[in-house]
Design goal:
The protein has 339 residues and is an alpha/beta fold. The protein folds into two domains: 39-64 and 88-242, P-loop containing nucleotide triphosphate hydrolases (Rossmann fold, 3-Layer(aba) Sandwich); 248-338, no CATH class. It has helices at 55-62, 89-92, 102-105, 112-123, 128-141, 158-170, 188-205, 216-220, 240-245, 250-257, 264-275, 301-305; strands at 7-18, 27-39, 44-48, 68-75, 78-79, 95-98, 176-180, 208-213, 225-230, 233-239, 311-312, 318-319. It has an eight-stranded mixed β-sheet with strand order 6-7-8-3-9-10-12-11, with helices on both faces. A four-stranded antiparallel β-sheet has the order 2-1-4-5. A hairpin with a 2-residue loop joins β9 and β10 (233-239). The protein binds adenosine-5'-triphosphate and magnesium ion (MG). Magnesium ion (MG) is lined by residues 55-56, 180. Adenosine-5'-triphosphate binds at residues 16, 18, 29, 31, 49, 51-57, 214.
């Protein structure tokens, strides 16, 4: 299966200009530093990493909402990075988004019917009655019903609001949905329900997802591939099972260690191992070499001197870590390893 990528991000840099007190242009902040990733039609890429690693910046860049300083974002053959959010409507409707906080992302003044039919009103010629029929069908698809049409967002639980946001995102039958932490604000059992709903809709409709989360364990079930970000860099990428069960980058291992274990003995062993690792408070930003080296339990002299390129991992994907240098030849690029 070698379908052309639907979304292809190449060497993306995103720089925010933080204003100084005097209102001058301020200092540049490099939130994303050369990220590449690709998503094929119908595929789900899980993008994980700790807070501040640049996940939302990438999501927002795809939606035309983040300041791209260089690099390319191609969607179905169109270059998005050059459009500065002025996507033609024909393109706009093909990429939809669902955000973390269903409390602020749904307009409280609108009814559920308005929320779900708004994209249909803007992008289609459907009549009011046809839009309503479509809204009812969409509500049923997310396990809500016609009786919810007249209600307002505040009358729903967090999980129900996220179902409404998903119904709205599905209305135009997009080819891709950018999901930025869609379940982070929900309790655990609701998280699973929403992940199952997303899975089920993807299977039925063949939509591609860019699914952002903190929690690798949560995205592992639904993702085909997983990319791991650390301080603006994608440090590892590969098939979901491989990344989850056999992480190659020390940072991915640390992320997985943050997932609680059910076996108390295993949990104790892990805690003991963690004590010997450097404290996470150690300076986070390494100005040269590997971005993770100040927190890495396996850091070597070389890690301070050079930036590790993306090395192929035997069981699939790539990781930017010198620990793989002896085992594998250098991969041509992150994108090539996804073929
Ligand atoms: N508009 C902005 N202006 C200045 N800095 C910003 C802006 N948006 C994000 N940043 C900074 O860029 C970095 C990456 O932010 P981003 O929101 O992409 O991270 P994230 O991985 O999504 O984090 P989280 O998991 O907390 O959502 C952070 O240090 C953040 O403070
Ligand atoms: Mg974010």
């Amino acid at each position: 299966m070698t379908a052309a990528p639907l979304l292809e991000i190449t060497d993306l840099h995103i720089t925010y200009w933080r204003r100084s007190l005097l209102g001058l242009r301020g200092k540049p902040f490099h939130a994303v530093r050369g990220a590449s990733l690709s998503i094929r039609p119908g595929e789900t890429l899980g993008l994980v990493g700790e807070s501040g690693s640049g996940k939302s910046s990438i999501a927002n860049a795809v939606l035309g909402l983040a300041p791209v300083s260089s690099g390319s974002i191609r969607f179905a053959g169109s270059e998005l990075a050059a459009m500065n959010a002025r996507y033609p409507p024909s393109l706009r409707k093909r990429i939809q988004a669902v955000f973390q906080d269903p409390y602020s992302s749904l307009n409280p003044a609108m009814t559920v019917e308005d929320i779900i039919t708004e994209p249909l009103r803007v992008h289609t010629e459907l009549t009011r009655a046809e839009r309503r029929a479509k809204a009812i069908e969409l509500l049923q698809r997310v396990s809500l019903s016609e009786e919810h049409l007249r209600r307002h967002p505040y009358q729903f639980s967090g999980g129900q609001r996220q179902r409404i946001a998903i119904a709205s995102a599905l209305a135009l039958q997009p080819e891709m949905i950018v999901l930025d932490e869609p379940v982070s604000a929900l309790d655990v059992s609701t998280q699973n329900q929403i992940i199952n709903l997303l899975y089920e809709r993807r299977e039925a409709l063949g939509i591609a997802y860019l699914l952002i989360a903190h929690d690798l364990a949560l995205v592992h079930h639904i993702s085909d591939r997983i990319a791991v970000m650390y301080l603006g860099h994608i440090v590892e990428e590969g098939p979901s099972d491989r990344v989850f069960h056999a992480p190659a980058h020390p940072y991915t291992k640390a992320l997985l260690d943050a997932v609680p274990l059910l076996d108390p003995q295993a949990q104790r062993r892990r805690r003991a191992a963690r004590k010997s690792a450097p404290a996470p408070e150690a300076a986070r930003v390494a100005p040269t070499g590997c971005p993770y080296r100040n927190r890495c339990p396996s850091a070597m002299k070389r890690c301070a001197e050079e930036s590790p390129p993306a090395y192929s991992v035997a069981a699939g994907g790539v990781a930017s870590c010198f620990l793989l240098a002896d085992a594998r030849p250098e991969a041509a690029s992150a994108a090539s390893a996804t073929a």
